[in-house]
Amino acid sequence: MEAKKGALGFKQHTPAERFFNGLIVENPTLVLMIGMCPTLAVTSSAINGLGMGLATTFVLALSNAVISALRKVIPPTVRIPSFIVVIASFVTLVQLLMQAYVPALNAALGVYIPLIVVNCIIFGRAEAYASKNGIVPAFFDGIGMGIGFTCAITCIGLVREFIGGGTAFDVQILGEGTVVPGPVGAFLSGYTPISIFIQQAGAFFVLAFLIAIMNKIKMNMAKKGKDTSKFGQGCCSSAEEAAADKISAEKEARKEANE
Question: Domain-by-domain residue ranges, the chain?
Answer without folding.
Answer: 7-258
